[in-house]
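Note to self: the last two entries modelled the partners one at a time, which told us nothing about the interface. This time every component goes in together.
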Amino acid sequence: MIICITSEGNNLDSKVDQRFGRAQYFIFYNDETSQFEAVQNENVSGTGGVGVQSGQLVAGKQAKIVLTGSVGPNASQTLESSGIDVVLNVEGSVKEAIERFQNGELKTTEGPNAEEKSGLK
Amino acid sequence: MIISIASGKGGTGKTTIAVNLALTLSRDFAKPPQGGVAKSTATFNNFEQKNGGSSRITSSREKSGLNNVQLIDCDVEEPNAALFLNPVITDKKSSYIPVPVIDRDKCTYCGKCGEVCEYNAIAVIPQKEDSNGNVLVFPNLCHGCGACQYLCPENAITEINREIGVIEIGSADNVQFVHGKLNVGEAMAPPVIRQVKRYINPTHTVIIDAPPGTSCPVITAVSGTDFCVLVTEPTPFGLNDLQLAVEAMRKLNIPFGVVINRCDLGDDKTENYCKEEGISILMKIPFSEEIAKSYSKGESIIDLFPEYRDRFNKLFIKIKEEKEN
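The predicted structure of the combined assembly is written out below.
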């Protein structure tokens, strides 16, 4: 299964980026091979609809779950329609987030927890 | 002649200039030809939408050769001119943008619509082994450009109208009045502004009250106007935003001049800038507590201070001279 973690940097020691749509990087972690791929997010400086774009990017990488801080309404809808579960309010490093998820400590939620455009603040 | 009033910085006095200029012109340039008394109830309720949008106002006064004045408030996010003009609204129209609707039976989830959408208003979720495809439309992100519908290879997209604002048409004094109001929560002013501007009657003297700033709504409001009055104040913020507005006007090739409001406050950098750049200062209005008070009550300057009627007449003459040069 592919786990997507929003990240401030391109490796597992980076902090979890608290914004989904405007996350600096998406880290796609394959829990069967323990390999990961870091994708720089070109939507960081987009003017609008970045949640939609980032949601499609994550869906295109076949991720099944997203670990992040906050998602807005458009991103939430895109992820949900793509059958991707979301865990919100994840803090600490990417590595810690993966471990906590694998230990069953993280729960998925439905719906957004941020307003539109809040990633710009 | 179409004169737009813009500013760069907000709160410098665009609406004040627009309203007082319109009222002055309607009183001094719109008198009936043979000493008759102009009726204060205008009769231009019969707007005719012609050929995809260009509309025209006819009135008995126009037929009598009267030089009518239009005030078009294009600051659709906060249209304030009506507060000073108190127009009688005689007609109301909804403002729409077309947004896509996807026919799920025809859609193959090819992704073309999402690809061409400049505003990320469409997400296409491709079909997978274990799930059906999906197309999500985000109407609040859509600018109504129509590219998705035009380019869909399956003809699976039609458009429906989504209301984003309202246009109100009316009159006050001898001024024909039109303004647009963007619905609360909507982000896209330009489509409403474009619709408001369809009511411009080029045979009239038209005053356009533009929004502040130098972004899309301002460009939409001032485009196609014959002259732009940039209203500023002699403060660092006023000057900074004036410089941006000047750049925009030069790019758009619109002749322009500057009105300095509250000219005796702040510093002389704005005036020096205008001199260095060869920009005409059309008018200077000193700070006055009396003007501020009258503004707060929604009163026009020329009604309270008759000497300003002469000053606004001179402003109009200067605008005409500047436009000729």
